[in-house]
Amino acid sequence: MEIRHLRLIKAIVEEGSIANAIDKLHLTPSALSHQLREAELQVGAKIFHRIGKKLVLTDVGEKILASAYAVLQEMDKIEREVKQLIKGETGTIRMSTECYTSYHWVPAVLKKFNVDFPNINVKIAFEATHRPIQKLLQGEIDLAITCDPIVNDKIEYIELFQDEMLALVPESHPWTKKEFVVASDFETENLIIHSEPLSTVTVYQRVLSPACVQPANLTILPLTEASVEMVKADMGVLVMARWALKPYLTHPALRTVRVTPEGLHRQQYAAILNHPERPEYYEYFIKFLKEEIEL
Predict the structure, then answer these.
(1) How many whole angstroms separate alpha carbon 267 and alpha carbon 292?
(2) How far is CA 149 from the centre of its chain?
(3) Where in this chain does the record put each HTH lysR-type domain (predicted)?
(4) Nearest alpha carbon to residue 42 among 10, 74, 6, 69
């Protein structure tokens, strides 16, 4: 016996008449009669006694109805769970990037994500920008984009993409005549960084510090847009990832220069807390994130 037969029997009993069952199931009278005959043929016994215009359950019908309630309840539960898993699940993803306040990629990611998960709210936690891993461990955000993974059993790191750090300078800057810059080139420059300490800044960690070089001046600006405006005004140089600089690279007043002959590359990760019952939509969000930002 098929699920549609169980729904038919349940509807006839609950609605009290064939006419009402027809309306509920959106069937024609002939279709309803045909399905009922099919059910009785499959069972090999009458399901209803026909008494005048009424249908009264037989003993076999009573047994089938009891089973129908149990089976249909479970089927409805499965359908709800599947729909919820695919599209109807509700929740929130609180996220932040490390160092950058550049979120130009968010609309494209959300456009893809919202097709499959329209009830998941994605929030950007700007206040966690400079301490995303700490905020993740404290439960204040759910996902962090970082290039500096800290070994911790509570955190899972998923590789997103490799990026290259580029020096951003105004079009009139002497560096625009160079194929690349090295540590000593920073000795006369005002280096704009997003946050202290300087030891956490990638270009300092991997290029300046090993060469024992300090920039002539240091300006701390937590906002990417403000830092770029400083560069436009020829008030300093900025070293940032290409993906974060992407919205600004079409401006005619700006140029980029490679850092070191080999280039300054980093691996970016999505950091999330290890949890055996983590919702599946996290995996989908990270997938769309990787597709959009990957260079």
Answers:
(1) 16
(2) 20
(3) 1-58
(4) 6
Task: Specify which residues 164 forms β-bridges with.
Answer: 265
Bond prior to 197 in cis (omega within 30° of 0): yes
Q: Give the β-pairing of 91-97 and 180-181.
A: unpaired
CB 238 within 8 A of CB 167: yes
Query: Which residues have CB under 8 Å from 55's CB, separation 6+?
Result: 12, 18, 48, 49
Question: What is the fold, at CATH topology level, of the domain defined by 3-87?
Answer: Arc Repressor Mutant, subunit A (1.10.10)
Q: How many CB atoms are located within 10 Å of the residue 138 CB? A: 10
How does pLDDT run across 149-174, given as a tens digit for each residue?
A: 888 999 999 988 888 999 999 999 99
Tens digits of residue pLDDT in 71-118: 988 887 887 677 666 555 678 899 988 766 667 778 888 888 888 788
Give domain 91-161+274-293's CATH architecture.
Answer: 3-Layer(aba) Sandwich (3.40)
Question: Which H/E stretch holds residue 232?
Answer: helix 224-232
Rounded distance, CA 290 to CA 292, Å?
Answer: 6
Give the helix/strand (H/E) hosting 220: strand 217-220
Rounded to a whole number of angstroms, the CA Rg of the chain reads: 32
For residue 280, what are its two tokens? 């599946």
Q: Which two tokens stand for residue 120?
A: 């998941």
Q: Are strands 91-97 and 143-146 parallel, antiparallel or unpaired?
A: parallel
How would DSSP label each residue in 83-136? HIIIII--EEEEEEESS----TTHHHHHHHHHHH-TTEEEEE-GGGTT-HHHHH
The domain spans of the chain are 3-87, 91-161+274-293, 162-266
> What's this model's pTM, rounded to 2 decimal places?
0.58
